Amino acid sequence: MSIISKYLTREILKQFGIVMMAVVSIYLIVDFFEKSDNLMKAGIPLSRVVTFFALNIPFILSQIAPVGMLLSIIIVFSLMNKNNELLALKSGGVSFYILMRPVLIMGIAAAAVLFLFSDRIVPKTTSKANAIWMGEVKKKRLVSSREKNIWIKGARRITHITYYNPIKQQIFGISVNVFDDQFRLIRKIDAEMGVFREGAWQLHALIEQSRDAAADAFEILYKAEQLEDLDFVPADLSKVVRKPEEMSYNELLTYIHKVESEGYDATLHRVNLHAKPAFAFVCIIMSLLGTGLAVRMATGKGVFINITYGIVLAFFYWISHSFCLSLGYGEMLPPVVAAWIANFLFITLGFLILAYAE
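Given the sequence above, the corresponding structure tokens read:
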């Protein structure tokens, strides 16, 4: 590795560490004040509060790493330009593409590390953090299995849901068991699916069994549909269902195969599956954009102006990526296209900026 490459690598890593520490600190402070009321009402020990926020740090790091890469590169090249170091290197015959090489290598390495970190570390810590929040803070009585089965314990009622589609707010394979004060089964509902409408669940293709105390027998009714006021709403289910960041790539792939083998729609999960490597790839894109942007715009402009440009660029990427994922969730784009199209657009922009950076 040349002296220039070592210098750039060292400076970018140093600025990357500073940026990440600053952003994580700000995020945790804001998050603490937002959740402080819930934490105090729950009365959980300080040690559990510290553990909860510590377990959230890996997820925060995985989300802001691409932006941290972009800003650190912009800061390093902007400072070099401000101190006329870039001018001195160009005068000495150092090509722009020689400067670009170590940055691109760092971007590729960062993408690989981010994918492995998000795949191996983040799911474990996020699951534990969500368990503390739902169980100890919110005290919710909802339990989800490792795959997809959901159990809800309510007032003298236990409900089982085989599968929940959060995009369409649909539940499948519903079984509702209602008990009396002596915990004797007095009513049971089995339905193929349900949709949340106007504050209640509209169940379809259901069998209702009601206990007749006088005859000591169950009356069975078959119904095409029925409105039922259950003990939960879609927001409750969305909190308890395992999120993509709580599953590794292989776990999510296995989950998709299981869901589809049982006849359910897994479009949402396929989009999230392709989004995992696509998001890690952003580190490479941000390396290209950061270098080209800093070299082109740094002349005559302050470091903070260039940082602002970088933040705006990252914001537009995030909006574009989220919008494309939404199109994938709505089945307007194929899952792989929805996950990667924003990357394609911004890497094209990166190459265009680099083409004129020299």
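The CA atoms of residues 37 and 255 lie 36 Å apart. Try to locate this feature in the token string yourself.
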